[in-house]
Amino acid sequence: MSKKRTNKNKKTNANSPVIEAVNIEKDFGDNHVLKGINLSVNKKDFITIMGRSGSGKSTLLYVISGIEEATKGEVFVQGKGISGLNDRDLSIIRTQKIGFVFQFYNLMQSLTAKENILLPAQVRGAEYEELEERYEKIIDLVDLRSQQDKIPSEMSGGQQQRVAIARALINNPEILMADELTGNLDNVTSENVMNILKNINKELGVTILHVSHDRELVKYGNRIITLNDGQIIDDTRIQ
Ligand SMILES: Nc1ncnc2c1ncn2[C@@H]1O[C@H](COP(=O)(O)OP(=O)(O)OP(=O)(O)O)[C@@H](O)[C@H]1O
Ligand SMILES: [Mg+2]
């Protein structure tokens, strides 16, 4: 049985949060995973979400990006309540407002780096000129120009992760969400990828939410949120 969708919108202005989660709860069957999350994400925030395995970090990202529906509460993306959206509008949020990067890259193995990066924009039906301009900017930001004609199996883990980041940015999203971006990378490669995220945050003004186990990496962001057993137990600004 589907949950009744209600349309709730908030007035927005330049200082409105990019994302606001209000009393979010998420159950999987009897498993009460998120237990009342309240979170306001400001434009250009670079948030690291930390917490033990099973504390609900990935679930929180999925719920606030509309991949999973909240059991209770409401998520507002740029002032729009996402539970009130029809499937078409929800898909615009997922594909254009928010870029998502997963731990295991999820690249198409038969496509080159360039083809992988362009794919979400082609699905959207973007104009060729707009796309080329955006691609040229992003390929340098992720430092992959020399790799653009390779397929994933010809690239290192760090290079593949940078392809996944570029792909998440091609539709010019306001927000980039990344789940354990550096989980499979060595320290030096992780730092390289984190510096790229920092540039994306600074130069493109993209708001970033990054789930990580690695306390060493919090220094790249401006805010650390700690989850414990489905609740936010700490929210610290570090700049
Ligand atoms: N699709 C699902 N169906 C059922 N239970 C789920 C599902 N996704 C997550 N869970 C449960 O929700 C809880 C939180 O999982 P989640 O993946 O959000 O944790 P996490 O903090 O990201 O952990 P990790 O650091 O190991 O990735 C776990 O108990 C998990 O078993
Ligand atoms: Mg997880």
Characteristic terms for this protein:
239 residues, alpha/beta, Rossmann fold, six-stranded mixed β-sheet, four-stranded antiparallel β-sheet, 31% helix, globular, binds adenosine-5'-triphosphate, binds magnesium ion
General description of the model:
- The protein is of the alpha/beta class.
- It has a single domain, classed as Rossmann fold.
- It has 6 helices and 10 strands.
- Helix 6 links the parallel strand 7 and strand 8.
- Helix 3 packs parallel to helix 5 and helix 5 packs parallel to helix 6.
- The longest helix has 17 residues.
- The N terminus is likely disordered.
- The structure holds adenosine-5'-triphosphate (ATP) and magnesium ion (MG).
- Magnesium ion binds next to helix 1.
- Magnesium ion (MG) binds next to helix 1.
Layout of helices and strands:
Layout: E1 19-28, E2 31-41, E3 46-51, H1 57-64, E4 72-77, E5 80-81, H2 87-97, E6 98-101, H3 113-124, H4 128-141, H5 157-169, E7 175-179, H6 187-203, E8 207-211, E9 223-228, E10 231-237
Parallel strand pairs: 3-8, 3-9, 6-7, 7-8
Antiparallel strand pairs: 1-2, 1-4, 4-5, 9-10
Helix pairs in contact: 3-5, 5-6
Bound molecules: adenosine-5'-triphosphate and magnesium ion.
Structure at a glance:
With 239 residues, the protein is α/β, with parallel strands linked by helices. It has six helices and ten strands. The longest helix has 17 residues, at 187-203.
